[in-house]
Amino acid sequence: ILALALGCTVERMKVGHHGVNYSVMRQSDGKGDITVQHHSFVVKKEMPAGVEITYLNVNDGTVEGIRSTSHAAGSVQFHPSNDDWNRPSKVYSEFLESL
Known about the structure:
Elements: H1 2-5, E1 10-26, E2 32-43, E3 51-57, E4 63-68, E5 74-76, H2 90-98
Antiparallel strand pairs: 1-2, 1-3, 3-4, 4-5
């Protein structure tokens, strides 16, 4: 819904991301995370002005996260769970830093 509100285009995937772990790469530092996903739609890579990609799927290159460059708003297509050491996902700290 945020993607549509920011002017992005959303499309149905041929094969959605369901029931397995998916690797995503954080665009800010190139680090990866293993994520839990369950979705059948994806934001197209062509971003309107004022929107940037924050996460990409390592396997198929689909957009997994976006953020507004002019508003404190961002979203991801995965569940931002704690890591193996029970530390909170970087998604949360990135959001708090953007406020």
